[in-house]
What we know:
The protein is mainly alpha-helical.
Amino acid sequence: MTTAVQRRVAWVLAAALACSYAYFYQAGGWNQNSRFALVRAIVEQGTLTIDETGFVNGEPVTGDIARHDGHAYSDKAPGLALTAVPVVAALRPLIDQPRSARGIARLSYLTTVVISAGATVGAAVLLFFVALSLGASGAAATFAALVFGLGSPAFAYATLFYGHALATCCLAAAFAAATALASRSSRRRDIILSLVVGIGGGWATVTEYPSVIPAAAIACLAVWHSRLDHPRLVRVLAYVSIGALACAAALAWFNAASFGSPVGIGYQSKVDFDGMHEGFFGLTSPKPGPLQELLIGSFRGLFFYAPVLAAACVGLLWLIRSRASRAPGVTAATIAVYYVLFNASYHYWDGGWSYGPRHMAPVVWFLALALAPVWCGVGRWLRVGLVAAAAYGGLLALMAVAVTAQPPDTYRHPLTELYLPLFLDGEVAHNWQSYLERLPMEQRDRQTHAWNLGEKAGLTGLPSLVPLIGLWFLGAIAWRRVTNGDHRPRGR
């Protein structure tokens, strides 16, 4: 049972993260241009083809295109676009000239805030409460949530119209529900939690196809927690299946309407990406080079950009060691290992223009969750080390989000070749590509290219980030006021 103080902390955490994400507009790129072209096609024309919305004067606005029966489609999994349709339909009447470049920029910004930022806020709050349910102190749970929300690549994905933030939130919701099933209560509660497990895992898969394995692992966790009561086991299995099948039906409808078969997906018709034909849609076997680079390399390394997450390896072992948290710990560890091996097996393992290893984005949530027991189990000086490592990751994430959350893959060492030089020179909001442009322009349009709210207020360079720092300071004060000593860390 959560306390009033913990609920107030969750509100402060949610507000701070929401303001942080909404502060930045990252503008266009192949990934988001492809997805948003589909959203616009559905809302504006009632079609799934992007023959018009994906092109300007005959030129494509993205390279992420699938071709089928003479038509162009987004090659991306449809979950994010389908989720965005009602949001865009509701916001569109509020936008002046919504089909113009500036109208699309405003609409895409608001949609990204509602969905990507909103999903990341939701995932962080869920992490906070799940950590508490697994025995963490309030301070430990807050630390873990802040590492996820501000000290990792999740900060960057929260500001982009990619599928990773939504898929992460869906998996987090499913995991939280499966963990909650460990406590027996009413039949109605079982049904609701089971549906969340099924729908959360199912929609994560519709949003990002690789989520299917983590979704299955979480479903197994739900079944495990209900195994000792046969009627309850049948009930949980039934409603997890109903939720998952509903999502599968939505995907089958989309695939059949777009590509002529319920099991046909955009990647089968993807243009100009021959690597997708290797193995199973580009998946072969884990390779040592990419594996090393994905973990510790300066190009995409998760522990390079968020070194505090390395301590999660110990945290996962501690979760597994404790009988009360063993099943969730095993599930979290399985998901973490899966994403690492999956990404190292993928032909396009680097993720293109990406901050960190975006193809294993959800792993950050599960590793951050494992930081909570580490915080509780170490002494004061080691906590200082954790805070220092988290602050370093937070600074790198801030630089990335401030400069560009989409570093071109031509930079093999983005920190030293791109982020540090531009950040120290005050060159912020460096993505000069809109939702209607295939590649960055030579001259910045401050209305349709990237910006931050400080710039909108008339500030330039690094001073444009001062209001955000001020918001964080106010958030820290609010946290101190609502806790009133309730967050004294407990030992394990």
